[in-house]
Amino acid sequence: MKNMAFIKKVLIFIISIIAALYGLYQQNTTKDTTQSTTGKTITQNPAEVKEILARVPKPIGSFGTAKKILYREIYKGHQETFYCGCDFTTTGKVYLGTCDVTPRKNAKRAKQLEAEHVMPAYHMGQNRACWAQGAEVCVDSKGKKFKGRKCCEKSDEVFKVAHNDLHNLYPAVGEVNGDRSNYKFGMISGEKRAYGQCDFEVDKDAKRAEPPENVRGNIARTYFYMEKTYNFPISKQQRQLFEAWNKSDPVDDWERERNKRIEKIQGNKNPYIK
Ligand SMILES: [Ca+2]
Ligand SMILES: [Ca+2]
Predict the structure, then answer these.
(1) How confident is the model at residue 26 (pLDDT cuts 50, 70, 90)?
(2) Which label site among 32, 80, 102, 220 has the fewest CB atoms less than 10 Å from its CB?
(3) Closest ligand relative to 209 C-alpha
(4) Nearest bound ligand to the CA of residue 220
C-alpha cells in the first residue's frame, strides 16, 4: 500500500510538470502569433500608428523627393541656408562667399547643400522597435538581419513619414550638417568660430551643438511639432531650453510663409507657428 501511495504522488508530480510545460508552450505560441500578425515590429500599436499617419495627409514618399521639393519649391525666392544664411542654387550648390563661411575641414562638403533633420533620425529611432530590435522584413539578400535607420526606413511607416517630413527639414551647408551629426542642441561655453562668420558651434566631446540665436525659436517649434505629431518624446531638460528659445526667437514672416508652403504640399501645418 505504501508503494501505491508513493506511485500516486510521483504521478501527480509528473502530471503537474506536464501541465506547467504545456501552459508555457501555450503562452509562447500566443506570443509568436501576436508578433506575426502585427507583421513588422512587436511594439508598434496599430491604433497609434493609424492615428499618427492621419495627421500628415500627404506624406512625402522618399527623402530624395523631399529634398527636391524643399530646395525648389519651399525655398523658392528665399534660397538661404538655415544656420549660416548662405545663398544656394536649386541644384544644390552653396555660395560660401555670400555668408562669409570658411570650411572647417571639408571644403567640398561645405559647398554642398544638404537637407538637415532638425530632430535627427537617431532621435526618432530611439523609441521605435525597428531601431534597436530590427523587424521581420529587415533581412538582406544573404539572409542577414539588420536594424537601425535602414530597417526603420524599410519597415516602420511612422518613421518613414517622419523622416521625410518637410517641417523638420532645413537646407544647410553640408559640412555643418555633417558636424552637427545627431547631437542634441544646447549651449556651449565660449564663442568658437569654426566656420568663419557662421555662429554655429559644435562640441564633439559633449555631443552638443549650439545654433545661432536667430534660428533657436525655429528649432524649438520644430521639435515641439515632431513631438506632437509623432509622439517622439523630448527630455525635460530639452523642453526647458526649447521653451526659452521659443520666446527669445519669436516667429517671423518667413517662418510663417514656409509653414504655409509646406501645408500646401503635405496637407498639415506646424501649429506652434502662429
Ligand atoms: Ca557658445
Ligand atoms: Ca527665427
Answers:
(1) very low
(2) 32
(3) 1
(4) 2
